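Q: What structure does this chain adopt?
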Amino acid sequence: MRSTHRIVLAAFALAIAPAALAAQAGNAAHTHIGHVADAFRGTPEGKGLVPTAIAEANVVAQHAALAARDPSNLQSAKTHAGHVLHAIDPSLAESGPGAGYGLKPAVTAAINHIGLAARAEGASQAVTTHAGHITASLNNTAQRADRIAELAKQIQAAEAGTDVAALITEMNTIAAQLVPGNDANGDGRTGWQENEGGLQQAEQHIGLLKTAEGITG
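A:
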């Protein structure tokens, strides 16, 4: 009788093992999605990586716009360029009004974790599809952040009498695209694709992914 009982239990364990493994794989993907969307250790207030990136991007855009108000005032432009650099990456400027985490580090970590979600064993088609869309928008943002940093450094290095208006205009234009993205192909809408999507599109596809996966919160 005991032998029969053991056989039944073993058969039951084998039957549920695939489902248990699938659930664990799904949870692994969901954990990384949560890091991107909702909470991540080390960010200000423990927020998700994309919300952190959006907060820092808003600071970048604000100070790029302030620099553009009076491009002939080189000292003011240099001050705001420093604030832009700090919000992009605190390692580029010692102080500023950013949260101290940095747009670029947040975006880089978000790209890593959404990639880990997509590569998790047993990840669903929804995860892999939306992860691709999210990654494309985040890559666009990283490239914009790099270009803004280059321009801000050039502004800071400018000498008295140098005309930096063109640098400031470009910095402001790109900074304004960090969150909403850019309708690069002129079709009247901004998608997630290369050169278009920004943090807003990444956030939209995170929402679609969470809905598809039944992730609440």
